[in-house]
Design goal:
Largest sheet of chain A: 5 strands, mixed
CATH superfamily of the largest domain in chain A: Periplasmic binding protein-like II
Strand order of the largest sheet of chain B: 2-1-3-5-4
Oligomer: heterodimer
Structural class of chain A: alpha/beta
Number of strands of chain A: 14
Strand order of the largest sheet of chain A: 2-1-3-11-4
Number of domains of chain A: 2
CATH topology of the largest domain in chain B: Rossmann fold
Largest sheet of chain B: 5 strands, mixed
Distance between the termini of chain B: 76 Å
CATH architecture of the largest domain in chain A: 3-Layer(aba) Sandwich
Radius of gyration of chain B: 26 Å
Number of helices of chain A: 19
CATH class of the largest domain in chain A: Alpha Beta
Strand content of chain B: 5-15%
Largest interface: A-B, 23 and 23 residues
CATH architecture of the largest domain in chain B: 3-Layer(aba) Sandwich
Distance between the termini of chain A: 52 Å
Strand content of chain A: 15-25%
Chain lengths: 412, 195
Amino acid sequence: MSFIHKSIGEGGDNAGVKAHGAGTRLVRAGFIPLLDSAVLIAAAELGLAEREGIQLDLIRDVSWANIRDRLAFRQFDVAHMLAPMPVASMLSIGTNPSPVLAPFSLGRGGNAITLSVKLYRQMQAAANLAGTEDALTNAVALRGVIDAGRSRNEPPLVLGMTYPYSSHNYELRYWLAAGGIDPDRDVKLVVVPPPMTSDALAAGEIDGFCVGAPWNMIAVERGVGRIVAVKGDIWPSSPEKIIGVRPEWASANTDTLSRLVVVLDRAAEWCHLQSNRRELAKMLSVPRYVDTPADLLHRVLLGQFTIDPIGTERMVPEYFSFHGGDANCPRTELAQWIYSQMVRWGQVAHSPENLERAAAAFRPDIYRTALGLPANAGPAAAQVADRFIDGVTFDPSDIPAYLRSFSLPINK
Amino acid sequence: MQRPLSIMVFDENRIRASIIEEGLREAGHDHVSLIHEIDGLARQIERIQPDVIVIDIETPNRDMLEHLFQLTRIVRKPIAMFVDRSDSSSIEAAVEAGVSAYVVDGLRKERVKPILDMAVSRFRAFSRLQQELADAKTALQERKVVERAKGILMKSRQLTEEEAYVLLRQSAMNEKKKLSDIAQSVVLAANLLGG
């Protein structure tokens, strides 16, 4: 763990800044108790922030709306946020849009789509599923069940996600559409707070959901849910949560922000090491953080899943990717992809100006400058834009043409 | 004469909701509805057609509520009170007090502000009450522990009540600890030693 002891003062851009000489700066960070808040928590718990002169105060919250508003009204300096939140805020859409920038990505992966066991058994019976099929096959099978239900005049299936501007919403929609299901016509999408997903599924209020860890695994463990897709099946490069900051705070605290990025990068590196995962699981499990048994978190961190209550196992080694492969860089094309999905599903109209505003929400320049990386660091954009579940390649240079390449929604 | 405003208070805490309702009625608002559960909320909104919706910020249901407002056609365009930023100090006060609110677009600020101010002050009063109650409980608990510690000392060291108390207080001062902490140690030690 020698990297922990290096001071930022040794780097180029911040030469001359002594870690402890300039006094400790307080950074208040809001977070939602989810596995992907790990980097923030590790930064505080391992003393990484303190060593760089940052007193990182972590404040647990209960809803994304609160995170958004408390950041906007200066109760937080930075916040654990859904990657699409800054994009929506820069486009001035949604409730209380207030400008937010993303200088750091907290990693990739972590979400999954879970359906009720009852619904999955119907899919198995209708499409002869053995239980080892891939995410796309599962989506197509779901479409078969939906078509059959419609012919019998049954009410549409209800699927839960976490927030209108969430990776969960866009991933769920992408997966459904890849299977030929129109998320606005063929099913009903509702918002369900993640801790309530298992109960809602058990009570039959929803038929499935897309949320982050550990809620999918909890639904399987309780015998009510069946995991049919993970985030990586849909798009491996997809960003999940980011650190959001107010533009005015970022410009008034450039040095603090730069240190924070370095601290978070080190914390992410630590979280990523397999050998640290048990300790990380323990760190997160306590009531003031994620408040979930350490064993369950550890299995999630290792990507060892039981996807069906009957015991079907699946290994997803990169289920959550905290670091490496440019996972912490808020790359511009990621914001552009999020924007393309907002346009695709009618949340915002496309215009070159809107594309530009959306792209400006992610700030790879702040990230790279803080870490002394060259402007073109990381894999080529073409690599990021590839490997979608439906085989379509993302092209940010022509959003309308990209959206025309999808068969859904029909009236676009 | 203006049409009276319809106000909906969504709060899972029934006592706090009643306190807010009372305040609003005293201020002359007769159309106040209290909702405590998320079940059937969409129907309730359609029935009540609220102009102003006041919500406890600590409810994990807030994301769900916002989405419902977007989907519910009757409340045409409910917007968070935060949209008008001209009065940011009162908005910050609201967020701090734990209140969030949504108002129907187009409603004049002068009509909404007194309602929000009322909700904020009642939320604060409620927090104060809760704090006082918690403090009172702690004080009672501490007094019980001190009583037990005194009893233990009186019995084991043949002290009067007064002497036992002085001994506890003196130890607390010497150790720079709270009287109740010392008392707790005495009780714990007595338990361990089977006293």
